[in-house]
Amino acid sequence: MIMTRFLFPLFLFANAVFSQQKIDTKKISTTVSKHGISIQDDYVWLENTSDKSVIDWVDLQNSVCEQKLDELVKNYNFSFKIKDYDYLSTYSMPSKNGKYFYLSYRVDKNKPSVLYYKENLNDLGKPLVDPYDVYKDPNVVLSGYYPSKNSKYLAFKISPNGSDRQEIKFRDFVNKKYLDDVLTDIKFSNVAWNADKGIFYKKNSNKEFFAKDSTYQLFYHKIGDIQSKDQLVFDATQHKSNISFFTKKNKLFVLEESEDETTRNFYYAELDNEEFQLVNFIKEDTSNFDFLNIANDKFYFSDEKYPWGNVCYFDINNRAESKVLIPQVYSHLLIDAVFLENYIICKYKNLGKYYMSIYDYTGNFIRKFEAPHSMDFQIKFYDEKTNELFVTFYSYTVSALNYKLNITTGANDIYFNDFIVPKPTLFPFNYFETKTITYKSRDNKDIPIVIIHKKGIELNGNNPTLLRAYGGFGSVSGPNYDTGLLSFLEKGGVYAFAQVRGGGEKGKNWHKEGKGFKKINSINDFVDAAEFLISEKYTNPTKLAINGGSHGGLVVGAAMTQRPDLFKVVVSEMGRLDMSTLDKYTSGIHHFDEYGNPNIKEEFQSLISYSPYHTIKEDVNYPTCLIITSENDDRVPPFQSYKFVARLQNRLAQKNPIYLKVNKIAGHHGNISNYEKKVKQESEFFSFIWEYLNK
Q1: Is 125 helix (H, G, I), strand (E, B) or coil?
Q2: Rounded to whole angstroms, how far apart are CA atoms 525 and 499?
Q3: Which of 87, 7, 42 is nearest to 675 (CA)?
């Protein structure tokens, strides 16, 4: 019966390719009932990703999409420009961790990057971890590396198939060899060393690939042991708590957060005793502070009473008495606090400009450094001998500028060496205009938006424009240098990023105003951004593309179903598009605080009120869509995109093409395992939007 059903769509294959007709997908009428609410879902069968009929359907969708994308990539020169701009760009200096400096090189464009290390910043560098050498597979991804206390060993995480389920392996620095130790089923875990003796890690116990997450156990692995001997240190399975951990000097610290994200417990254990007896030094805490660090037995945090962020502390043995060390600076967002031996470095953002303020541990202000040209920055390392910070600055349109900043004198000098050599910038600093302004939402809130275009371009309402957003989890957006975007801008495109509610760009309250029952604000703000760009003559509905990934995929999908008249092109990547199944699969159970709990009637009603899959109307011709997902995305399951595409395609009103691209052997971050795949992914995206914005 299944084969018979698929004869018809397979017969239509040629038609689909050459005339861009939609692909017919079988409907199996299913009624899903919850809280007395009945929802008809004709595409539940697509959730069974291992079924042959689903595999065949995905292959058919990919065939149609890939032929179209290949055609468009040939029509435009984005691939050439991206490679050319990459070659001409400057790159960040290495990071220092322990004894050594670390950086990655793309030795072979068709293989994963190789991790190198240097003993001195001006050394040539030596290869340390070559993922291809370990796995003989060009699709593996090196997702993290962690040197032991004395840099005797390096633990590194590998994703063999792009998914969040990873492996940990080890490299011996002295003997230059890989150890036999292999740890599997690692998920949502960092690595914390106990000196050079062993590591702490979290282990996942899922049996089904897309089952709801079960990463509730913290283990300790001794170097040289097999994994089955590893010691269970903390088990949160019974209460389904989220756990995080780190080591600091002679202590292991564990944070346990309740399933509903309302209560937290903090523990520590002495590392000298390998029984790791945990002391619960903060019990059932319901305050919503942001943990920053622990130094010299002081617990540093940002108080929830001050939404722009401050630095407070208390002694870990006396939670009751806390003090404000660095006060909040109103409207200046504290993005990060870096704790050095003698300094606390606070990174701030204000109206699109970044700076750092340096304090000592008594709270005395030492010095301020402002980022040039409104660039963002990363602190790469600190040199105690010279009292200098080594910092990389970057923006949307300017590649890495490496500086050393002297804390004592305030001197700031651009840094070069034998391997970080001077290069002219791709474009003059004033070639592109970048501005952060605000627009009014429908409820009269000032929403920040970043807008970039070539300086002097005529803004006549006819400019090809790309609008993006994320708007979730209190995430603070920042610039990413992107040579694909540079190519789009150089061709006359306009780029905008709306910092909608749900993100953290205006502090903790900005997040609160866009989560749970107020999640609709994130979507409304995004729609209002589109209206603003149109009213201010940046673009018009036939020239506007929207794009978002993961939570951003939800935002653009919901915006499209709410106001399809505003957009020409929609690209959703790894989007959370079916909110009714939040509690059924992968990591959704960890996000009830962000979206709502579907097991509570009022919250379920809220979820489906904006769920992109459930708000598709039968009588609307939606914009041209490219829906992108990955077959091994175990964070936002790919079948959410499958179902969304099937429902969009299978309506008589739909005349604009709807394409589905499913990345093979890839996870939530797409095809990033090697350079050629990355360039292909970028050039396909920009070729697609350029084609439809200029029709």
Answers
A1: coil
A2: 9
A3: 87
Q: Is 193 helix (H, G, I), strand (E, B) or coil?
A: strand
pLDDT in tens, 208-260: 999 999 999 999 999 999 999 999 999 999 999 999 999 999 999 999 999 98
| Per-residue confidence band for 608, with pLDDT thresholds at 50, 70 and 90 | very high
Task: Give me 591's structure tokens.
Answer: 């996000």
Number of Cβ within 10 Å of residue 158's Cβ equals 21
Closest CA to 322 of 284, 282, 262, 353: 282
Distance of CA 103 to CAs 84, 87, 106, 128, 673, Å? 22, 17, 10, 10, 16
Hey, what's the torsion of the CAs at 380, 383, 389, 394, to 10 degrees? -30
Q: Which of 500, 597, 608 is nearest to 551 (CA)?
A: 500
Question: Which residue do the tokens 């709807």 mark?
Answer: 658
| Run of H or E residues at 284 | strand 279-285
- Phi first, then psi: give them for residue 544, nearest 5 degrees: -115, 125
DSSP 22: P
* Residues 663, 657: Cα–Cα separation, whole Å: 19
Residue 591 main-chain phi, psi, to 5 deg: -120, 20
Q: How does strand 624-630 pair with strand 569-573?
A: parallel
**DSSP-assigned letter for residue 562:** H
DSSP class per residue in 61-110: HHHHHHHHHHHHHHHS-HHHHHHHHHHHS--PPPEEETTEEEEEE-SSTT
Tokens of 449: 């938006």
Q: How far apart are CA 313 and CA 291, in angstroms?
A: 10
Whether the model clears a pTM of 0.90, i.e. scores above it, the answer is yes
Comparing C-alpha atoms, which of 102, 131, 135, 104 is closest to residue 119? 102
Angstrom distance (rounded) from CA 575 to CA 598: 18
Helix, strand or coil for residue 593? Answer: helix
10 Å CB burial of residue 421 (0-12, 13-18, 19+) is exposed
Q: Is the dihedral of CA 577, 583, 584, 585 positive or negative?
A: positive
Which residues make Cβ contacts (< 8 Å) with residue 473, sequence separation at least 6?
502, 503, 511, 515, 551, 594
- C-alpha distance across the termini of the chain, in Å: 42
The SS3 assignment for 610 reads: helix
The order of strands in the sheet holding 333-339 is 333-339, 344-350, 353-359, 365-370
Are 616 and 610 a contacting pair, CB within 8 Å? no
| Percent of the chain surpassing pLDDT 90 | 93
Coil, strand or helix: which one is 392?
strand
* Half-sphere exposure at residue 677, Cβ-oriented, CA atoms within 13 angstroms: 21
Q: With bands split at pLDDT 50, 70 and 90, how would you rate the model's confidence at 6?
A: very low
Angstrom CA distances, 512 to 32, 294, 503, stand at 31, 27, 9
List CB contacts of 377: < 8 A, sequence separation 6 or more.
347, 354, 356, 371, 391, 392, 393, 394
| φ/ψ (deg, to 5) at 608 | -80, -15
Tally helices (H) and strands (E) across the chain. 13, 38
507: left (phi over 0), alpha (psi -120 to 50) or beta: left
Q: How do residues 536-578 score in pLDDT, each as one tens digit?
A: 999 999 999 999 999 999 999 999 999 999 999 999 999 999 9
pLDDT at position 317 is 86
